[in-house]
User: Fold these one by one.
Assistant:
Number 1:
Amino acid sequence: MASPKLGVGSRGLPQPQLLVLLLLLGPWPAAGHGGKYSREKNEPELPPKREPGGEFRMEKLNQLWEKAQRLQLSPVKLSELHADLKMQERDEFAWKKLKAEGLDEDGEKQAKVTRSLSVILAKYGLDGRKDARAVSSNSLSDPTEEDSLEDPRLEKLWHKAKTSGKFSSEELDKLRREFEHHREKVREYNVLLETLSRTEEIQENVISPFDVSRVKEDVLHSKHAELKDRLRGINQGYDRLRKVSHRGYDAEAEFEEPRVIDLWDLAKSSNFTEKELESFREELKHFEAKIEKHNHYRKQLEISHQKLKHVESLGDREHVSRNKEKYAVLEEKTKELGYKVKKHLQDLSGRISRARHNEL
């Protein structure tokens, strides 16, 4: 039997001799792993890329989004959270740019971004508190299962308005949105109040140089001012709800959406010229139309979700596939509109804040 042949190198050398020759020529870096002075070892590592399909550029926001999905929040609540997280991401990147330019020495912008995230965590039950999980329910499709208004005074006003006979079905829906908007303002106020209390406790237990302490005091003062503004808005909102609940809606009312009504009341008490106020009024009309469009898609998303669950229970694959496609389109559109509404709201609120600041 013939012996097995040895492999031959490119110059006709037997394979073992070629191997010895290569070893004698010097050290060779392993494939894919650079030596001490290789390009791979001396160039900075690229930052880890975001996972394909990740919703956000910031990993911590992706983690919050994934946690919310595990909590099985309703589709409408998830779309609202998505818009809030997009706004949070936008604000955090803006703050990082300011910080890099040395324009947030007192830390006020950083504190505001942190407070904003705290509000989001509490609002959607992502802060680990069991009592916050109530926010996960959503009753757009079933008005008989209403979320608690969390305030006996509000519950009493709402019951009185419902049974008064002064409101049409459409007006009751509108009034309910106003009550729920007021509840959200109270929730956000309570989160800010708790955040401020924790910050003050930390400051009392930390000894800092005078200049640093002064900066912290300035930040705390700005928080107190924000709390006062929010409390004033809550009190004004409650007075309005009380009047509307007793008298009904004014046929000559300028606006219908709660957020727009709040903005208009603030604008009228700000340092706008007559021309600026008229321009702001027109912009609020556009904003209200945008909110109404968003509300329409929120309702359609909830209906689509209920329909999809029904079709899935029947097991018809073709119908399930079609409904999933429709649901996915509605979901993306609702997220997109939600972000646009929140961004527009932030821009309008900023204009009012600047006008109020100028009059001081």
Number 2:
Amino acid sequence: MPMASSAISHFSSVSTSSLCFNFSTKLRHPTTLRQFPTHFTKSLTVSASTSTSLDYSTDKSSLSSKTSNWQWKFKDNSIKIHYEEHGNETNGPNKNILMMPTISDVSTVEEWRLVAKDIVQKSGDVNWRATIVDWPGLGFSDRPKLDYNADVMESFLVDFILDPNSPVNRMDLVIVGGGHAATIAIRAAKKGLVKPTAIAAVAPTWSGPLPIVFGRDSKTESRYELLRGTLRAPAVGWMMYNMLVSNKKSIQSQYKSHVYADSANVTPAIIENRYELTKQKGARYVPAAFLTGLLDPVKTREEFLQLFEGLDGKLPVLVVSTSGAPKRSKAEMEALREAKGVSKFVEVPGALLPHEEYPSLVAKELHSFLQDVI
């Protein structure tokens, strides 16, 4: 998240990364394949070195695509939620994928778009229909001044899946999420709030930028609360947000340092697009919560692993790690390599947004997983 480096510098003159953590590292390991159904039987090594960067040119394929809005009723609020649908109009049985963007101040459905289109256009026995939805307070959804926390985001995910008027068909549904979105989906499934056919966690994370660096105690929590309150304030909040987040130089720096693995893939079009997202009305409320740990679905690595363990034997879970993730986030991904409840673990190039930076490679791994679980 492009807020964090500047925020942490102001927090205590310590520089760190933004979307989640800091200090990029390059670690390569063979991919391991864990057994879930009987047809998951072989070990697998991913070797993919070709860069596939995001392309904002007009798509010329024959895919069926549309954008629309859904109204989320939350307490006394009616919140407009933006989503996209991508499908294949050929005859055959249909199955459904729900793709959840990584939570950050530049979160958007666009980060999953090329992956969705790649998957739904592949031929096979099943036609996949992919829905990508912006979180409340992010992307092109409304951004009201709610008291955002992990429970609010979990409630949204559950309501979007279960509401009778939802665009998502919850039958034969596979949930795919990046970063915190993946862990929130895992938590909801462990609680039994949603019952997907399978879950794919792409570069999963669980801790916001400040807690991962400074930890959690009464002193730091007080500082987080002060910073969060300042960012949410009517006048000074916008001033601080503009200084820390909403400027192109900051966004470009963060993308090149750790959001993408290859700085050459960070184009002016991407930076301009993400900059515009930070200028939306109410743009600072969710980032203020994420930065200070309110959106963390768990508090410790042990709790993180317990979420996955709780799904052991219940449904297939794919974890997609990245070779170029920042050091701290990489360590959390690696903790899942042999974790109970993880039926398949793969590694691809990338850092914190591999699905945006290398969409064809991530789509290949997801499609392979989907073929195994249908």
